[in-house]
Amino acid sequence: MAEERAYWLAWSQIVGIGPILLRRLQQHFGTLAEAWTAPVRDIGAVEGFGVRLVETVAKGRVQLNPEQFLEQHSLKNPCFWTPADTDYPRLLLEIPSPPPVLYYRGQVHRQENQGIKPVVGIVGTREPSEYAKRWTRKISAALAKHGFTVVSGMAAGIDTEAHQGCLEAGGRTLAVLGTGVDMIYPPRNKRLYEQIQQQGLVLSEYPAGTQPNRPHFPQRNRIIAGLSRAVLVMEAPTKSGALITAYQANEFCRDVYALPGSLDNHKSLGCLGLLNRGAHVILSEGHLLEMLGTIPLLDAGEQLSLFEPEPPKPIPDLAPELVQVFQSLTTEPTSFDTIVQEAGLAAGEVSGALVLLELQGLVSQLPGMQYRRC
Predict the structure, then answer these.
(1) Measured by CB atoms within 10 angstroms of the end CB, which terminus of the chain is less buried, N or C?
(2) 254 to each of 12, 73, 242, 257, 365, how far by Cα in Å?
(3) 195 pLDDT exceeds 60?
(4) Which CATH number applies to 103-292: 3.40.50.1820, 3.40.50.740, 3.100.10.20, 3.40.50.450?
């Protein structure tokens, strides 16, 4: 594995070869070490390797000694993982484009990397409303107090609020940068950067000294999504990097949640669009924690139970159709189709009733269009 580590680093230096092509090389040859010494014609047989790229590979292999380069590179970049390392975050290995090299600074928690301690991503606009700031702080603090790690991008706005809310609650947070891990961007987040290193990790796929570069920031969003078991979008306009993160999270089979906002606030329209397309709605800290409590652990069959349930609420008088729907539910998850059958109502009526019951705090929606009594 130590030898393979050098080859992940070496291959990542060849222009034109990104994470997806590296995955293909590994799958085709078994190891990247084997690929490094393979004949040029065999490289050309791998999907995505055209004539020009094969020529680039041939020149790059002649100019680079993987073992020597690893030694030299480690002088400026002492802390990094490759997929060959046991501490490489397990959830990132599930995505189609895991970073070939992931640099870090701060405090490493192996349970986090192994997926045993759940990580939740929080993203949003760089110019949030006071409403979004307040709820981001409340949500990140609640997550921290109930054992979740919060990951974001250390950008201005929602990212900053998420990190700070988590830190102030004594939690652990991860910042994925679009620069090298030694660069502070934006510069005004210097103190936050230092705090994150003390209570979490700063991560990047870019080596030390890499300056801010516009294309890097959308690229790093896939890492935020990949590290997370769920991604929360707190406020985002219709054209927003936060929505890119949400779409990638959906592609990676992660749950996506959105904070509802006002139609009069253009910065909320991206969140409302996500909700319209099936994202889970955030109704309160307790509601979110209950929803996240259904995420299974990676190494165990049991489900997370990281919060104290709220005391039961008295059931108010309900309209007859709401009673029918409510009586078809138990505290166990029930699918939407089953509720329709049990209630004996049309699907549209059941859907509307569930929304009303959810707003009253009597029912909670779970991933996969399932519901249960609170």
Answers:
(1) N
(2) 27, 34, 15, 10, 16
(3) yes
(4) 3.40.50.450
